[in-house]
Structures are given as C-alpha cells and as structure tokens.
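Methods: example folding runs. The two proteins below were folded one after another, and each record is reproduced exactly as written to the output file, sequence line first and structure-token line second.
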Amino acid sequence: MSELNAPFSGGPTLNDGVSIPWLGLGVWQSKDGEEVIHAVKTAVEVGYRSIDTAAAYNNEEGVGQAIRECGVARDELFITTKVWNPDQGYESTLKAFEVSRRKLGLDYIDLYLIHWPVVGKYRETWKALIHLQEEGLIKSIGVSNFQIHHLKEIIEDTGVVPVVNQVEFHPLLTQRELLKYANEQGIQLEAWSPLMQGNLDLPLLKELAGKYDKTPAQIVLRWDLQQGVITIPKSVHADRIRENAGFFDFTLSDEDVKAIEDLNRDHRFGPDPDNFNF
C-alpha cells in the first residue's frame, strides 16, 4: 500500500471508480464566515484537497467562498456535504440538495451523504441520492452513521451500494464488525471524530508518540490510514491543520497497530446511530 505514504496525491478508489483523498478537513463546529474560510484556505495551502461539510454545520456558504478563493482548480478538490435529518424523504432531499449546492456555489458535489439513518425516511432519501447521481449533480453517493442493518436495507431496496460510510471511528470505538462488512461490500469507511474530540491522553498513545517522534494525534491518524480508513480531522487552527497532515512519513508496526486496536471500549463520544432523536 505504497499510496499510504503519498501525502496528498494518493487515495483509495471508491466502488464507483471515483478517487477520494485519504485525508480531508472536517469543518463541524467551524463558524460560517471568516473562521471556516480561513480553515479551508489554510488546509488547501497545506495540501489538503478534500473538505467535508454538511447542511447541519451551517457553514456551506463559507466553505463555498473559500473554494472559490483558494487558488486551486475546482476539479482538483473533493467536496462532501450531507442532507440533514429534517430534510430527509425523497422530494425534500432533492430540495435540500439544491439549497446546499446553491450555498456552496458549485455545479456539482463530489460526495453527498445521508447524515443519519432517520427511521422511516432514510430508504427514500437513498433513492433521492441515486436520482441526483443519475442526473449528474453528484459524482458519488454514500451514507454516514449507518449500522450494518441500515446498509443492508438500502442495498436490498435499490441494488446500489454506498461508496462511503462515514462513522465515528477511533481507538476507543474500533467498529470491527462494521469495518469487516464494509470491506466485504466495497464500502469505504471514513472516520469522523478520529481524534476522540481531543481525548488523546491515553498512556499508549503518549508512549507511541515518543517512540515514533510524532504527536498522539498523528499516531491515531496513521492508525486509521493503515487500516484503509479515510480520516477527516476537524480544526480551525493553522498549526493543528498542518500537524494533522503529518502522518504520511512513517509506518506503525503491526504490533503497535494491534495495541491501539486493543484500546477499544466501544465508547462513543457522539450519538448512537440506533438511538438518536434529532
């Protein structure tokens, strides 16, 4: 997997033939306007080419402005956004997509995701995403926070396999069964909250940071990468955005990868996809 050492040029090929970078900038909780604009421009300057936003983040307009002003051609960037829960359903998803596209100021979206599996809605929402892709408005379609049973339902319904499942994934929540199923189905797993919302003060991570002369964050991001999981750490600070990209120039031993995996406690910092009320 030599591409795992390619800082920004490499990336996996999704099941629809589209390539996606291994590293992206997450902009959850980044304020619209100058804060998110600065974060996105900084990330692009560092070398990031993937930006992950969502309708629910309320910063698509700022992301769009940064894209227009960053000095990198649109076709060199990979932009993800997501349909929010109240907007799910077939017709309402089509309308919500147009709102997001207009806010971003883009002719097309690289990856559009169902943000959460809203009971009674996500199956029709998935059909709307398929339609939008057929219309050429989205290059790739996927989901976020889907469990195995959610994935099976939409695949059985439509025969269309999501290209990506973006989920909470980190050393305390290693999602072994979900990762195995995704690999079997050709679904690319993507980690949100990979840095455990800053809860990196685990003795093993500190020990490995010393061993490899890296930060605990870089250790975790490299661990993601060596399992073939895309990672989208969030930050609005220029030094942290640069630091988060510094995990392509070393390799964790198999023993250290396993040691990190053994930290698993099935602990979520975010909501449970089978029990949420928003």
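Second run, written to the same file directly after the first:
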Amino acid sequence: MSKLIVGLIQVNARNEMAPNISFIEEQARKALAAGANFVMTPENSTLLGANHEDTLSKVVAEEHHPGLMSAKGLAKEHGVWFLIGSIHVKVEGERCANRSYVIDPEGRVVAWYDKIHMFDAELPNGERYRESSVFRPGERAVVARTPWGGLGMGICYDMRFGHLQRALARAGATLLTLPSSFTVPTGSAHWHVLLRARAIETGCFVFAPAQVGLHAGGRRTYGHSLVVSPWGEVLADAGGDSPGFVTAEIDLARVEEARRALPSLGHDRAFRGPEVLES
C-alpha cells in the first residue's frame, strides 16, 4: 500500500465543456507535481449549464464523453488514481445521470455511482433548484476497492442523508468522497459542519472537492474543497475565493484509531417505533 496524497481540484465550471476540461487537466498536472497520487474533481466537473435546457442540450453519452476520456488518459499517463466527482451522462429521454467515476492507474473505470438524492429545494433567498427535472436518480450505493481501502461514493446532496454514509462505512468504506456544487447560502450555513459530522459518524476520511464562484445563469457556489479526518479535523480547505487545487497527505492509521476510540459503527441496536404518543 503506497502513501496516499490526495489532490482536490476546485473548479469554476462554465457552460461549455472544453474550457472546464482544459482547466482540470492543468490543475491535475499541478497537483501531481505537488505529490498527489489520487486526484479528485467536483460535482458537475465538465459542465454547469445556465439552465435545465442548456444542460440537457449539451449532454453526451458515456462512451463519447470528453471529460471521461480526458480523466482516463491522465490517470494512465501518470499512473495515478482519479475520481471524476461527476459528469452529466445521457441515459434516457429528457433526463441524464449525474455520475461519478473511480479510475485506476491503467485508465480503467473500476467503479461508477449515480447520485441518489436529488436537490429539489427552494432556499430562503429565493433560489430554486429541481435536479429531478434534469437527472434520473441513482438506485445503488457503491464502495470502490482501492489500494488504501474501501472508498464510499456520494455526490453533494447525498451528504445530508447520513444513513447512506453509515451504510458505506459498514460495508467496508474507510474513505468517503462527496464532490459537490454547494450553493452559497447552504454552504455558509452547513458545509463544514455536515462534512465533519459525516467523518465523525463513520470514522472515515472525507474528501469533498467543490465548485466555486459565479457560473452561467447567475448561480454561485461555495467552494471550500475539504479534506476531513476521521476525528472531524479539517486537514485541508481550498477556501471560497477562487478555483485551483489543494493537497493533503493521509495517515490511514487514523481510521483505526478513531474507530477504536469511538466504536459506534458496532453499536447499532434495533428498536421499535417511533411511537407517536398523544398528550
């Protein structure tokens, strides 16, 4: 098992694929030069459309996706692991999949995951999101096998459903990926606390590469790509001002240390109810 050094790429995605792919390639090479051997990108890595119609008009099938081909080429060229946080993949009619990939150093896809939970929300500042009108929800949880242990896959809104990350940890995950495109209002209120909570609850390392800044259509994302330890410590934070990358060296022994100190994954108990009692 080699030393794990993650490189999280923080992206300000445009609504055209080519410039986003070029930026990811540039930043990936910089992260690799800084020692990273596992590069990770955010949700919507290669496209953030101005609106639903714009997004759907630019979706392509997996076998022709330039973002996937680029990541596979980078992984093979440099002999490193690569996580595509997510890309939009054409799968059916008027909707697509929001799909994450783990790619090995041979450039092979060893695992893929479709986002299960759709961000359908109306925020207090008036922002309105209906992911279910664009994306077909996934139906399966995934743990990918890597040289550093099991990697439980999630995407953005999935982090609000702690039972999913707990199920991944109980299935063998010691690393969790939660690539995201968090809004500024929800990010400033919840981003750090949710990711730290998911790490603490599972005793896993959490990696959350993120989108940042102003995008087509007026959407703003929060940034702050994070690496969090199994004890809930923030090991790296890319900040909320600009795209780029951040690296962190991971001490895998900390998973066992945290789980030995707080072995809650083994303390689940069955219970009745909830009973709703009348006063």
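Comment on the second run: The domain at 4-261 is CATH 3.60.110.10 (Nitrilase/N-carbamoyl-D-aminoacid amidohydrolase).
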